[in-house]
Amino acid sequence: MLSIFRQYTFDDSFEQVFISNKFLKEYQIALTFATDYDKDNIPTNGIFRPTWDTTKITLETITNFKTEHPEVNVKVYISIGNRGTQLPFSPQNNKSWILNATESLTNIIKNIYNSQIDGIDVLYEHIEASSVDFVECIGQLIKNLKDNGVIKEASISPSFGLNKEYYFFLYSSYFYLIDWIDYQFQNEVEPVFAPNKLMEIYDELVLKFYPRKKLFAGYSAENEDWATLSPIVFFLGGMNILKKRKGPGISIHYHNYYQENSNNSK
Questions:
Q1: Phi, psi of 117, rounded to the nearest 5 degrees
Q2: Which residues of the chain are under the pLDDT cut of 70?
Q3: From its phi and psi, is residue 114 left (phi > 0), alpha (psi between -120 and 50) or beta?
Q4: What is the C-alpha end-to-end distance of the chain, expressed in Å?
Q5: Domain ranges of the chain
Q6: Residue-wise over 211-234: b if at least 16 C-beta within 10 A, else e?
Q7: β-strand partners of 124
Q8: How does 55-64 read in b/e, with b if 16+ C-beta sit within 10 Å?
Q9: Which superkingdom (predicted)?
Q10: 164, 190 in Cβ contact below 8 A?
Q11: Could you confirm whether 125 is annotated as catalytic?
């Protein structure tokens, strides 16, 4: 059962993860987060900056990690956005946001990381804009980065409250540019108490929204998310999604690093 595993991280903890081509065909590292807010949380209208630990995640860190694991396809993503309600998607002007976002992310990927970044992931859990604005800005950003050869892949990470109005609208408009959908199961309105329920939700997503071949099962190991989805339920349900539903992969946000990231980014 070869699959894709994605780890969301703000530091170099991915170096401690056991990677084997017996289980994985691809290992994705999603750096959290690039944000278009300054250190005082003032919006910068598309001028993105890294909030992960840039002292630990350097060009050398990434290139060495890829070199040390030739048996597995290692890809690095920059995840733009934020978890929770802080730092929402809220462009001041669509045209300038797209221009600023394209230029700033190009600078991070090409100049800081020498094009060792493979793609971007879009993970906003709070949006203060119309769905039309969201689709225009994010869709055009992905298109610009791909057309300019800055990235090879793009993913979106929807959750229950924003899925239909925002993320599915985005996917419907730019499906040909979006390689993966990493659905965040920890944000369900109703708690998921059984592995079968997780599989039911996954099946419904495939039926109504996204192709199975692109749809990850996403999970957060943060303590506050356990009330919605416990680790054991996700492990059992996620394994069944990979084996029985032939899903392409799973992702995990690891415990406590968001709080640490918040402290590091101030």
A1: -85, 130
A2: 1, 255-266
A3: left
A4: 42
A5: 3-264
A6: eeebbbbbbbbbeebbebbbeebb
A7: 82
A8: eebeeebbee
A9: Eukaryota
A10: no
A11: yes
Single-letter amino acid, residue 250: I
From 26, 103, 125, 136, the catalytic residue: 125
Q: How far apart are CA 233 and CA 235, in angstroms?
A: 6
Tokens describing residue 130 = 């119309």
Indicate the length of the chain as a whole number.
Answer: 266
Place of tokens 């991915």: 14
- 167/172 Cα distance (integer angstroms): 8
Q: How far apart are CA 28 and CA 135, in angstroms?
A: 25
Structural contact between residues 101 and 141, judged by C-beta atoms closer than 8 angstroms: yes
**pTM greater than 0.90 (yes/no):** yes
Q: Which CATH number fits domain 3-264: 3.30.300.20, 3.40.1360.10, 3.20.20.80, 3.40.50.300?
A: 3.20.20.80
Kindly report, residue by residue over 183-226, the tens digit of the pLDDT: 999 999 899 999 999 999 999 999 999 999 999 999 988 777 77
